[in-house]
Amino acid sequence: MRASDRAYRTLRTEVLDGSLEPGTVLQEVEQATRLGVSRTPVREALRQLAADGLVDASGRGAVVTALSRDDIAALYELREALEAKAAALAAQRGDAVPFLLIRDRLLGAPQLLAQGEPGLVPYFDIVDDLDDAIEEAAANPFLATALRSVQLHSARIRRFSRHNPERLRAAAGEHLLIVEAILARDAELASQATHVHLHMSLTNALATAPGTVGEADEGTALGPRVA
Amino acid sequence: MRASDRAYRTLRTEVLDGSLEPGTVLQEVEQATRLGVSRTPVREALRQLAADGLVDASGRGAVVTALSRDDIAALYELREALEAKAAALAAQRGDAVPFLLIRDRLLGAPQLLAQGEPGLVPYFDIVDDLDDAIEEAAANPFLATALRSVQLHSARIRRFSRHNPERLRAAAGEHLLIVEAILARDAELASQATHVHLHMSLTNALATAPGTVGEADEGTALGPRVA
DNA sequence: TCCGACCGTTGTGTATACATTGGAGGGGTC
DNA sequence: GACCCCTCCAATGTATACACAACGGTCGGA
Lengths: 227, 227
Description:
2 copies of one chain form a homodimer.
Chain A: H1 3-16, E1 25-26, H2 28-35, H3 39-52, E2 55-56, E3 62-64, E4 67-68, H4 69-93, H5 96-107, H6 109-114, H7 117-138, H8 141-161, H9 165-183, H10 187-208, E5 212-213
Antiparallel strand pairs in A: 1-3, 2-3, 4-5
The structure holds a DNA duplex.
């Protein structure tokens, strides 16, 4: 694998899981040293992250972007537009088979979630596979690109709902409803069920998320951190 | 301005206006020579174009992407989801002033279009300013990013409607309806008016566009061209 | 003591040299 | 004659060197 890809994936993972907090300044030389590659692939990775909206490259050094509560609300507005459309298209066009499989897996989700922490990974695998199945069924490359972008940012929020099993159980039910609507080829219902799911999800996210995702509580006057 | 920005803008303009046709292979050394810069900024520009979806960078050399009729339909599906949402948000949140100004300008659009070719630039300026005003009024940075992406691809299609004054006059009326809905703070109407406009626009685009936008009719067996 | 200018340091932008990979073409063999 | 393999070449990937611009610190003057 190319060094630039490794650099990109490493940095992206660190931004998504919060080990690189918002406000962190990523400097080319510094990251090149840390990642054991030269500046060239790091530059490329930082440009990519900037295109993703995960860092802000204006000026000197790339700064990891913050996700304010307003940003989360805005992200969900976009998700609603995109995912409702995607669900509707999937209901119209999609092949039933993958959704049948996902339905079965979703029916087992409450058991998974009852296991606590170890069940979370397989649970989120189901949700991710559902996203992929809808994206595939919608058969629209432009929509797919836009969906991947919002999924990227949504991943930064997900870690807050990880510790809310009650919400996850409810979400599993909402996902099931979406799958049923797609299987019934009811585009309108699929769209509305998605709308409902995102509304509940946003409510939970805003209730769970701190003022600004990942922003350090200590030392706001310390200026940007350099990692 | 940075050399990489100049390279990016030059290449992007050439892709959008069709002077670099789909299938054209853009090689780093070649473009570096042509644009009078080194490979480094060209690499950056090509990466950016790939992120935009204007070139396909898989494998060796970046290939200018084609826009099939299916792609155009898919693009309009995404536009509908995004622009309907944006118009609705603009109706809910937007400041009326910019839309009042645009309404006045749109009322003069038929006169502009009656001038033929010289009126086209100011006409499309009005449309672009309306897009910007809606984007601004929607006050959603994620939606704004997605909108800019579809506008980029839409620009590749626009040159087909340039020579259809009748359609442009109708489109001006549809835009006016959207503006009126936003001014009336009627989110549902703004959304539906956008839906209608895009439906008509797509119908026209598919009627006007060749099988694959910009694809050479001669020599499909010649393999990719190198520019 | 405070303000401003100059210089040093640091970081990014660009160019170029070197490494590596992928592919095309030719030759050999089955 | 066709297919496979080997070799060579060209284009991309990576590293590094150089140039320029911005920020900070210090020194001098008011």
